[in-house]
Amino acid sequence: MPFIIFAVMFLVLPTIYLVAGAFQDAQGNLTLANIGNLFQASIIDAYVISIKISLASALLGALIGFCIAAAITLGGLPGWIRAPLMTFSGVASNFAGVPLAYAFLFTLGRTGLVTYLLVNVFGFNLYAHGFNLLSFWGLTLTYLYFQIPLMVLIITPALDGLKREWKEAALILGATSPQYWRMVAFPILWPALLGTILLLFANSFGAIATAYALTGSSLSIVPIVLYAQIRGDVLQDPQLGYALAFGMIVITGISNGIYIWMRARSERWLK
Description:
By secondary structure, the protein is mainly α.
């Protein structure tokens, strides 16, 4: 019951309020003008950039996270590594927002520690070779800090569910290890992998604190454009802000819905 009350107060009611605001003008009359304003070129560009960053961080996070999870479950790493790695993943997957942005600025900013060491010890200047932390790839790299641990946490149980007998049977029947992965393991893991990628996509698509603290308004992604509409400066248009939030709810809702469906299909195989 406490969870239901909490969910209604902080999830259901705010969502209903945002959706209702997307279809009302400033006087409270019903209108579709706010939804129509989402098709402005600047708004569409913001959605495109947000989707690109979310896809890049989700795909890279899934690839790197899968390799780490496979190493600790199937790769024969010492057992004592798994517990601290999973603990770190649990902490790092929740380390986001302003602290994460400042951590990367102090590390990989123009005067960051790693940037300084690379220049003064190895004679290699990241920024002279096109790297910029306050850019598309800089923000993607920052998002990977919590995307990779989240992938490790989610995909490790799925890899644990692969039965040893399946691989032994495949090898006895003459299959090679790549054939086992292509014809047995990946078809079973595929729903979990795709579902997790969608979850990582939704996770980065809705992030604002990290992006705003890191890039300010130099990178127009949807959460930052939304924030500009409600914070009270010259761009203030709360009704457009409601419409932007509605668009984000639709995109993240579709991603999470497909994730839940694929996760359920995967769990049927892993029982």
